Amino acid sequence: MSLPDKTIKLLYVDHSQLTAVERLQTLIADNKLPITLDVERIEGKIKQRLAALNAEGEQAALLLDNKNKLSLLKDGLSVAPEWDKLQRRVVSAGRKSELILRAAKISADSQVIDATAGFGHDSLILASTGAQVTMLEQQSLMALLLFSEQQRMSAQPNWQKLMARLTIINTDALSYFAQLQKNTTDQAVAVDVVYLDPMFPEDSYQDSKTGKGAKVGKQMQALHHLAHPPTLDEEMALLNNAQAVVADNQEGRGRVIVKRPQQAPFLSQQNPDESWHNAAVRFDGYFV
Ligand SMILES: C[S@@+](CC[C@H](N)C(=O)[O-])C[C@H]1O[C@@H](n2cnc3c(N)ncnc32)[C@H](O)[C@@H]1O
Question: What residue's CA is closest to ligand 1, atom 26?
């Protein structure tokens, strides 16, 4: 019998992890993620089981390792948000060390929407300022990785405050923006910054002249199997609607920040008001 769509295998390694499996099921139910877990405890060697799954042509699987870290396995790659690896950057983040913060110009009382959350790394840097960050992610599997990481990191006292500033939503950014615009009541919170980091073609990190340059990282490679770069029409819709959302900001400090590879054309071919770049990436700012 074939399993219905959106069913994904969840592998775990030890009986003691059953509560962690249940926690995942609860996260899926509470956040209404369209995912059904096909839970399996790995008997024997993990590597062998993964190789067998690959051979069976399994599209993707989730792995809960013995530290209850959730990873996505896809086409031989294993990826996870791994927010703990950003600890140093998060602790020392400031406008001097993080270009994204120079561009976003946020403060502790800012409201930010990261409309393309991905692994949530940029969200963490944005939230390191004290700002509230709403993280939108359209892929339900990516959203599950984020929810699970937020829960895992919230168990660590020194991460709790930062974790409490992150709100993860499994939605397409465009429908979320449309909803925000409808909600014009007094309670509506003014958005200061909308941050966009849509996918770009896999080769766009490389230098256009020499063909050399940074390769797309493992995490981005895995994402490329799940999500696609937007079409020009989609780019236009994203940028225009993001601008409309920050235009409602009464204090006039709204801006849209777009992350691009250094060499890439402007999103939706629209000239920004200001750009910040280093050798690899560029942040384009659109102000209102
Ligand atoms: C390049 S990644 C973002 C990486 C992220 N900035 C980070 O630091 O990990 C783009 C992500 O945005 C998501 N995405 C793309 N278009 C979206 C949309 N319209 N609404 C919500 N999420 C979107 C993709 O599924 C993908 O996970």
Answer: 118
